[in-house]
Design a protein that fits this description.
Heat Shock Protein 90, 4 domains, 6-stranded mixed β-sheet, 4-stranded mixed β-sheet, 20 strands, globular, Schlafen_AlbA_2_dom, hydrolase, helicase
Length: about 475
């Protein structure tokens, strides 16, 4: 077994270390393993993958155990064993997915010392991800939690009934069965999943419950050709995304059978499965990260916020193993026949791709997102004569470019408002149609300040009630250049 491990690359469940000379990095890896999907740490392996072994293995085993006991909380007890390879002794620390997660480094504290494993790297968890780790241990899903500030009137029941037409009647008991409505302190209120699915004002409660679709010129995001924002009820979103993809694909015809058969340049069935997978498995508790669909000349990327659920690896996904992050959303999608069978989506994507002869897609964990990449069999250059970019209601080309650069729709809107003149937070909130100055607005203003995009009008008194914000000279020049392109 150990010989097989040495042939593998470092990844989500495997890491090599030469010795114990960097205890903090070693402890970060063990914490990340325990919080994510388990893993093995092999000590005594050089960077070039040669076996160098561990000197004084008994002493080093004791030192490792003490480092773990003193440096990690809650208590973590990995299996530590000594194995001999090529006449040299290795230490192998095996960690399983922990039932007492999230673990953290004692020296960094419970708020700053939590790490998760993303590919072959360890990433510090933010507040939302720490909360997600706690929920998974407690058996609580984000979308099943009640929203006591809302009532049944905050649900668009007409949209829900249209979605369920011909499937089932939606009286209050059925809404309870589907957990669109839940009990909270003796009151019946919408669940978070219910609001995500059919809320009248979803983006007020969940600013990133929307889908960003873009068609880019070439193979990077330097130039955007077409862009839409989809803010419909989640079940309707699937068809809207597919319409956008079809609009930019090429369609041919096959007359070899008795009837005409459309031949598309993109794998529509597999893409639809990936879109559904992204909506159902997105971590909607994250801020600043909507679901994104990007169409390039040579590939299509579909990505959703959220790391893979604890205990799940990409290899597990390919085998059909899955954990449902959003059971309310998944149950509704199943009722609407958008999901055929639990855990079958990813294997079906690959079987459809193989049957149609398209290149094999790739799944990647990038930051706190999961991305499905579909390479295209042949490049599809943008048809400049297309009318797609002039679609009614679409954002301006400048706004689309700005949003692509800043990676935030709200940030783009703030910049465009400040282009007209300085404004305070309350004024910006009002112009954006927000009832109050939201936490996300605070966050984006702080981010734009750090990026040097905007500046304070009273920098010597940052907390002044008269404080306003303006565009920096550099940002005004960049906006002018983008507007001329």
């Amino acid at each position: 077994m150990i010989v097989d491990l040495l042939k593998r690359e470092e990844g989500k469940t495997l890491e090599f270390k030469q010795d114990l000379s960097s205890p903090r990095n070693l402890l970060k890896t063990l914490v990340a393993f325990a919080n994510t999907a388990g893993g093995r740490l092999l000590i005594g392996i050089a960077d070039d993958r040669s076996v160098v072994g561990v000197e004084n293995p008994l002493d080093e085993e004791e030192r490792l155990a003490n480092l773990i006991a003193d440096g990690i909380a809650p208590r973590l007890v990995p299996n530590i064993e000594m194995l001999t390879v090529e006449g040299k002794t290795l230490l192998v620390a095996e960690v399983f997915l922990s039932s007492t997660r999230p673990h953290h480094l004692r020296a960094e504290g419970a708020e700053n010392g939590v790490y998760v494993r993303l590919g072959s790297t360890n990433r510090q968890a933010d507040r939302e991800l720490i909360a997600e780790l706690r929920r998974t241990v407690e058996g609580i899903s984000f979308d099943e939690m009640p929203m006591p500030e809302c009532t049944i009137d905050d649900l668009d029941l007409d949209a829900a009934r249209r979605a369920f037409a011909g499937v089932r009647e939606l009286h209050e008991q059925n809404l309870r069965t589907l957990k669109i409505l839940v009990q909270d302190q003796g009151r019946t209120v919408p669940s978070r999943g219910g609001m995500l699915l059919f809320g009248r004002n979803r983006t007020f409660h969940f600013p990133d419950c929307w889908v960003q679709c873009g068609r880019f010129i070439g193979t990077d995001k330097a130039k955007i050709f077409d862009h839409i924002e989809i803010e419909e009820p989640l079940p309707q979103t699937v068809d809207s995304i597919m319409l956008f993809l079809k609009k930019h694909a090429m369609r041919g015809a096959d007359f070899s059978d008795t009837r005409r058969r459309d031949i598309w340049s993109i794998p529509l069935e597999a893409l639809r499965e990936a879109v559904i997978n992204a909506l159902v498995h997105a971590d909607w508790s994250q801020r600043g990260t909507p679901v994104r669909v990007a169409f390039f000349d040579d590939r299509i990327e579909i990505e959703n916020p959220g790391i893979l659920p604890p205990g799940i690896t990409i290899e597990d996904m390919l085998q059909g193993v899955s954990k449902i992050r959003n059971p309310v959303i998944a149950r509704v999608f199943r009722e609407l026949n958008l999901i055929e069978q639990w855990g079958s989506g990813v294997p079906r994507i690959y079987s459809q791709i193989a049957a149609q002869g398209f290149p094999v897609p790739v799944i990647r964990e990038l930051g706190l997102r999961v991305r499905f990449v579909f390479p295209l069999a042949e490049a599809i250059p943008v048809q400049e004569s297309s009318q797609a970019a002039s679609q009614p209601g679409a954002p301006s080309r400048l706004e689309s470019r700005l949003e692509s650069r800043l990676e935030s729709r709200l940030a783009a809107k703030i910049v465009l408002l400040l282009e007209k003149g300085p404004a305070g937070k309350a004024e910006l909130a009002r112009k954006l149609g927000h009832k109050t100055v939201s936490g996300e607005l605070h966050k984006q203003i702080k981010r734009l300040l750090n990026l040097g995009v905007i500046a304070m009008t009273i920098p010597e008194k940052p907390n002044s009630r008269l404080q306003k914000y303006r565009l920096t000279d550099g940002e005004r020049k960049q906006l002018a250049q983008q507007g001329e392109e």
